[in-house]
User: Fold this.
Amino acid sequence: MILSRRTKRSTDWAEYKSVQGQVRQTIRTEHQKHIAKILNSSSNLNGNKPFWHYIKSRKKDQTGISSLQTTDGVATTPAEKAEVLNNTFKSVFTTEDLSSVPALPESTYPPLPEISITEHGVFTLLSQIDPHEACGPDNIPAKILHELAQELTPMITHLFKQSLDTSKLPTEWKSAYVTPVQSQLLLPDIGYLSGKCHVWPTIMEPA
Assistant:
């Protein structure tokens, strides 16, 4: 285009328009191939994740969490909404009075058998993980846990055995994602929001 403008020759301009048309046609063709590949992937073992990822990329509205109605008014800014959600989630927890805990009577049930964590059990659970699931708080892709189950089994087994032997949980295992779910209201009240969390399942097998 720069050359055609500089020379102002009709032949150069015609050549530029011809190349421009070819490029546009190539882009359209490759885009159609890309869409066809996404549609085909939704019908095979890869799942429909690429399809919905494409749909999401074409959306124009990225509003996130809408304004929240509270007893004090409407929370509109990100800081206000975060504070409202935090206070709501805190309010559902109960602070127990540990100074007057009653003594439990002797149990009438038989004691639990000794818990044994085996590599076979760990491998079985790792191989059953859906590789298309989102990452948890540990940011480890589910696909890695699924495809490298055999290689990861000894290390994960050791971690769980160490946790069981010491009666302690790593801090990372206590974290979780909390996602507010918006109801079908134009201006949702904070009381109508619920949360969900994803935690790593305990891998244990009775002896």
